[in-house]
Amino acid sequence: MKPFDYFIFCFKNYAKFSGRARRSEFWFFVLFNFVISSALNVVSQSLWYATDSYAFLSISYIYSLAVAIPALAVTVRRLHDTGRSGWWLLAYYLPIVLTVVLFVIFFVQLLSEFSFYKLDSIRAEDLPWTTVWGVLLSLLLSLIFGILIFVWLCTDSQSGTNKYGPNPKEMMHHGFGNPQQPPYGQQPYGGMNAPQQPPYGAQQPPYGSTPQTSQNGEGGNYEKDPNGGDSHYQR
After folding, report:
1. Total domains in the fold of the chain
2. d(CA 80, CA 122)
3. Residue closest to 83 by CA, chosen among 164, 170, 166
4. Residue bearing the bigger pLDDT, 138 or 222
5. C-beta atoms surrounding 134 within 10 Å
6. Residue 5 to residue 11: CA distance in whole angstroms
7. CA distance 2 to 12
8. Domain for residue 224, yes or no?
9. CA separation for the pair 33, 26 (Å, rounded)
């Protein structure tokens, strides 16, 4: 597959969270998604400055919403390819959500004790340190799991078939459908179970004759000696 074909393939499997995705599928999707989103962002910002219309800003937002599900799906399949569950993503996203919630609680606590115009006069002992430490801890957890998941996303495919499906890299190398089958064009004529032909120049039995089995179990023909002697074996 060409690099951009992986990007199209992820959109064709828009909400497919089962199966596996090799590294090239995931990272080419990330690459082209970054290029397209950056280009749309530049275009929407330029049109906004030129026309002073906020409607053009929605172009990049619509694309971001459209690509969110296939991006999540291919990330889950990439984790499956390394033998890990896609639920590990919650270990990264939940601390981020918790950080946002704690930030909201932090500012609500400050505004309940101080007015908005007196926030610059707050001393260190006036801060709700329990909430502050909660924010720092959730950010640290998000950073740790983010690095761990990034390393997993860069890890090579788990060899063979795991509980999430066959190895996509091996299927790509051997042809889809049967991983044990050699690639198209390298099969013997007639398929995998084609009868073996005798070497070129070997004596062939007459057309229409039925090969007989000799005493040693090999196929061949017995021909009688025209002089009345013992028959001899001819392969």
Report:
1. 1
2. 49
3. 164
4. 138
5. 18
6. 10
7. 15
8. no
9. 11
